[in-house]
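Following up on my earlier message about NAP. Here are the inputs again, as you asked, copied directly from the submission form:
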Amino acid sequence: MEEMKKELSGKVALVTGAGRGIGKAIALKLAEQGATVLVNYKGSGERALEVVSQIEETGGCAEAVCCNVADFEACGRMVEEIIAKYNRVDILVNNAGITRDNLLMRMTEEEYDSVLDTNLKGAFNTMRYLSRFFLKQRSGKIINISSVSGVLGNAGQANYSASKAGLIGLTKSVARELASRGICVNAVAPGFVDTDMTKNMPEKAREAALGTIPMNRMGRPEDIAETVAFLAGSGSDYITGQVICVDGGMAI
Ligand code: NAP
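Thanks, got it. Here's what our run produced:
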């Protein structure tokens, strides 16, 4: 019997920061739906290769690609190599992100710049180089992983909130630029998700954060991946420039 065609069969997806955490869950989900997944990483090479193996073991296609998304020229080289090999990219998920939390008064210039460079400029870099191909294809899905911190603000995260709010503005502007060519650009704003990013929080801060979640539990990386898969598929073809909070109600 012929195998049923999956939602993302024949599509090529680039997921940044996909060796672990939310990015990994997104890579696995998109592969499960039939996409060939390019698993980008910066430092987690071994973990990215494990994600690739996991996808291949279940009959999917994936490749690990190393690139610091904060580096404009390196992003250009990554995109060139991907296009040379696959000749297309249909889905771009800008997930790579870091935190360097501190109170404004104590925040160093390096803490501010590094967070903006990775979280905001990183998404600009990949979109800047890939938009040419999306435009040529007259199709594409770009999904930027923002945060409720970018929607609500968060004490101790001026740099991170600025980067994630900036990412929302970037998403809306690029959505307007590319909409007439059938390219959808949306943002997902996760709340408080159980990954390396949140595991080293002091117990008190964790309890306080949990207290702000109406659903009373942390999110799972898979919760975010489900929404990203929806935005990557044809079911969201008439949605662009939106921010979907996946946060157990934090931003209500
Ligand atoms: P995580 O577990 O700390 O993982 C961060 C990922 O980003 C890693 O895969 C890392 O890759 C990658 N990365 C960092 N800098 C990079 C760079 N310069 N170039 C390429 N990749 C880079 O974090 P997470 O919780 O999964 O977060 C994923 C995204 O969700 C981030 O954008 C984060 O801001 C956002 N988010 C998370 C939460 C949460 O509660 N966890 C909430 C809201 C939003 P390497 O390990 O290879 O360096």
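One observation from looking it over: The longest helix spans residues 109-137. Hope that helps, and feel free to reply on this thread.
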